[in-house]
Design goal:
9 strands, 7-stranded mixed beta sheet, 2 domains, 350 residues, binds phenylalanine, alpha+beta
């Protein structure tokens, strides 16, 4: 403090000079202690305002006789001046403190290291999808995509799900009021692609799919699939098996085991579900992880596409489940929660 006080308390002598009347003491002290401009203004009004104490006294001088008035007038004026000076001194001090604080808060240390702008990265699902596409492209597959909002025809009917067939119950989804639906799998692209291309070909279709699911650690209402479709002459189940093995080994490592077990899908015959052997990160145990479905393209599907005399296989699986394996992610919901603690762990892993 620069108020010339001793042990921090302002003295009237310091604030108003030697002539300040003794009765000014408490006022000067209050002024010197005012914490901000508003408090100071309140004191100014109380002392010097229209009805202020000093103003009242000046007015009262008129009632005194001339002798007394001179001495009293001198006193009041001294009082007034010392109060004015104290107000001004405190105002200057508060202003100085304010400027000091502002300067301190605006201080820039140019020798500090700069702040790095946060760097974005690709989401793990994008990384895994890109990796999968790389693998399939190196095996000669073309990458195509299709609509997420589908018609009943491509999602079900052309894939040999007749209306009211119970197989539809396994793929409950969300419908628009005009009768379209959010595709439940990437398989509708099988017929869409065949309608506009001639065999032989090998394609993969990555994309979002939707199901009316009870959400849990391995199920989401929205997830991603990769579909593969290979059509040509004399394509067999062995080719299907080989493609699935190639994918598993390229993705997880040499020697990764895969398994096919017969099951039913209306659009393949024979049909199977396939699994890969992995270590479950939650239990630490090795076990089969069911990835998706596969099989030889059903004649009805070729018929819907206007194909004759060809053979082919198809498979499709959830990409999230495949990303869970190498990165030991315990809960599929982590993919969509946008939690930076999760996302940051996968920056640049692939
Ligand atoms: N579309 C099937 C599903 O989502 C998977 C599948 C794809 C099965 C291709 C057979 C052939 O469950």
């Amino acid at each position: 403090m620069h108020d010339g006080s001793e042990n921090g308390r302002p003295t009237e002598a310091a604030k108003a000079g030697p002539q300040a009347p003794a009765e000014a003491g408490p006022w000067l002290a209050a002024i010197a202690e005012a914490q901000d401009a508003a408090a100071l203004q309140e004191l100014r009004v109380r002392l010097l305002g229209k009805r202020g104490e000093i103003t009242q006294r000046l007015k009262a001088l008129g009632q005194l006789d001339p002798e007394a008035r001179r001495e009293a007038g001198r006193q009041v004026n001294l009082l007034k001046r010392s109060v004015e000076e104290a107000l001004e001194a405190r105002r200057a001090e508060l202003e100085r403190q304010r400027l000091e604080a502002q300067l301190a808060s605006e201080r820039v240390d140019v020798t500090l290291p700069g702040t790095r702008p946060p760097q974005g990265g690709l989401h793990l699902l994008t990384l895994v999808t890109n990796r999968l596409l790389d693998v399939f492209q190196s095996l000669g597959y073309e990458v195509v995509t299709g609509p997420e909002l589908e018609t009943d025809y491509y999602n079900f009917e052309a894939l040999n799900f007749p209306p009211d067939h119970p197989a539809r119950d396994t793929q409950d989804t969300f419908w628009t009021t005009d009768g379209r639906l959010l595709r439940t799998h990437t398989s509708p692209m099988q017929v869409r692609y065949m309608e506009t291309h001639r065999p032989p070909f090998k394609v993969v279709v990555p994309g979002k799919v939707f199901r009316n699911e009870a959400v849990d650690v391995t199920h989401e209402a929205q997830f991603n699939q990769l579909e593969a479709l290979v059509v040509g002459e004399r394509i067999t189940m062995a080719d299907l098996r080989g493609a699935i093995n190639e994918m598993a080994q390229a993705l997880i490592g040499p020697g990764t085991k895969t398994r096919l077990q017969p099951t039913y899908f209306p659009f393949v015959e024979p049909g199977a579900e396939f699994a890969i052997w992995w270590t479950n990160p939650r239990t630490g145990r090795e076990e089969w992880l069911e990835l998706g479905g596969c099989g030889m393209v059903h004649p009805k599907v070729f018929e819907a596409a206007g194909y004759e005399g060809v053979t082919g296989f198809a498979f499709g699986f959830g990409i999230e489940r495949l990303a869970l394996v190498p990165y030991a992610i315990p809960d599929i919901r982590y993919f969509y929660q946008g939690d930076m603690r999760v996302l940051e762990q996968f920056r640049g892993v692939l």
